Amino acid sequence: MTEDVLVRLRQQLPALRPSEQRIARTAIADPAGVSGLNITQLASRNDTSTTTVARFCRNIGFDGYKSFCLALARAAVDESGRRVEFGISEGDIDPTDTTAEVVRKLAYQEARAVEETAAMLDLAEVDRLVAAISGAPVIDLYGSAGSGLAAQDLQQKLRRIGYQANAWTDVHLALTSAAVLPPNAVAIAFSHSGETEEAISSIETAARSGAFTAAVTNFPDSPLAQIADAVLTTASRETRFRYGAMSSRMAQLMIVDVIFMGVAQRKPEAISDLLSRTLAAVAGRRRPRKNDTL
To answer: Distance (Å, rounded) from C-alpha 66 to C-alpha 259?
Structure first.
């Protein structure tokens, strides 16, 4: 495994058995400490058996407990080094933190979300989605609440380069649009959990219409990911004050930019012309600065 074990643990957590979830949470909370425990000690700390710990290691992709601990130790060193760079001792925001400390911790969390998403992103899936968008007569984008912001951001980017993209944050509008999508259309759903019923229903409906479907989610084994043709996985973190859409927003927007750039690269000269035209169309709506009129 080349990816960060902590990212893998966070992503697979909902799919694990309750006893395995306890082990995973212990490792996420203290990777350095857990890496120094033997298998019996870790089992005892989580009120389970050594057999369960061994099965847990296999289920998350390791060939044994030793390789799991080595990966945890490497991840702990990496986390420690990055926190030193940002001038923080730990990543979670505390109610007693100063404004300066909050800023540094937020910068750390956002940077790690983007970096880990980039490291985990399946580039073959990105290429499949970009190819589908490039030839699509229409692109439907679905997202609720915070995930709706990512859908709307991709809509405005694609619209600026001439694509018929529609972002739907109302489930009734999403379903009715999905039901009448033409052949070769593309439908993309944004959902951090991958369990949002609105996103799942919309993608299912779009698939029945013959659309190429994609999911942008933090959990590759989620219900949404299981039904989509392509899956782009984020790697965001949950902290005390930043749950769900807040913690996933930067990772989702990073994927939005990756998709946009992939589409734009296919026709660079035409895209440059379209961007210039759309910029010119709104230029007259800008109010000049006071010193520009003197």
So the answer is: 38
